[in-house]
Design goal:
Blueprint: H1 2-21, H2 28-49, H3 51-70, H4 74-95
């Protein structure tokens, strides 16, 4: 059950965003890859840098990962990351 909730909160919003933004690589495998790589790199950078700057760098890092995997421009990937974040917040609120 925990794995299903984790997928619902992480991979599903990325898949929805990929569909909405018309990503080149919008398969579920690419979404899982983006979540895994983005999470590892963003958490690592936030941990190393720390504070608000660490969170900002983590956002940029995950945007770059999304841009490379889904073939978005940097500007497009920043918007994509924001939309995914909003979908995730909505899902978490819906689970409460």
């Amino acid at each position: 059950m925990g794995m299903l909730i984790l997928m619902l909160i992480t991979v599903v919003p990325v898949k929805i965003g990929a569909e909405l933004f018309g990503a080149e690589n919008k398969g579920i495998g690419f979404c899982v890859l983006a979540v895994i790589v983005g999470t590892i790199l963003s958490v690592g950078s936030a941990f190393i840098i720390g504070g608000l700057l660490g969170l900002i760098v983590a956002y940029v890092v995950v945007s770059i990962v999304y841009g490379k995997i889904f073939l978005f421009s940097f500007r497009g990937s920043l918007g994509f990351t924001l939309v995914v974040l909003l979908i995730q917040v909505g899902i978490v609120q819906g689970l409460n």
